[in-house]
Amino acid sequence: MLTILFDGIAYGMLLFILACGLTITLGLMNFINLAHGAFAMAGGYITVVLMNSYGVSFYWCLPIAFLAVALAGLVLERLLYRHLYSKPHLDQVLFSVGLVFMSIAGAHYFMGGQQQMIQLPQELSGRWDLSGVGIGRYRLFIILICILLTITLQLLLTKTRFGSQLRAAVDDGRAARGLGINVSAVFALTFAVGSGLAGLGGAMGTEILGLDPNFPLKFMIYFLIVVTVGGTSSITGPFLAALLLGVADVAGKYYVPEIGAFVIYGVMVTVLLLRPHGLFSREGGR
Length: 286
Known about the structure:
Blueprint: H1 2-28, H2 36-54, H3 58-79, H4 89-111, E1 127-130, E2 133-136, H5 137-159, H6 161-171, H7 173-178, H8 183-209, H9 215-230, H10 236-255, H11 260-274
Antiparallel strand pairs: 1-2
């Protein structure tokens, strides 16, 4: 049971890393980017190519995936996304879904339709057995990275000048411009960071989740569930939601494999019946 709990926590942490970029763009920028999974897939393929074709260390692949996908997100934000910030949500959804199918076609063309694999470093492979509890080394690594990332994001958004500028730009862009805040630059940087976090999650999730061109469609619903259950007013909500959903999903598939795939949806429905705005959203908030 403790091993399942540990694996569920690690899986939840990975879901949070993958979804926290969507938390930023959807929750803080009020922009529905359903192509978030495409950025995660890009980070995964960057890691696969660097490791399998060029022999780059896995540890170097993580920051490279973050920076490369963040740069791609910045370019797309400047060329495409920024024109849709003021558009209705339906336009944003249709546009981002179109990008999803374009990314799937591109991945099929350049990388093929087969499942991609990577070989983790020796020190991250295998498990430790502590008092009968199996602790996967790579899963422990994911947990540590997620904790560090959560603390960093929370401090960035609540304790820095940039976080204040972002909240002001979202709440009232016109007033923020009047105060001398470069709203366009703030949004561009925020979108780039959110995209980079998706790329980092894709790089870290390749070994556990697998990677193929359909990755954005397979995991899109998981990203949305994490953000919906956690709420969009803070990083804390999606973090706790990811933990809850990760443990429920792993435990459900182990104890009741016949319906295990539906457990995560049952948890989502239950939480939303009790807290329609998510765990940590203020009622009436966006």
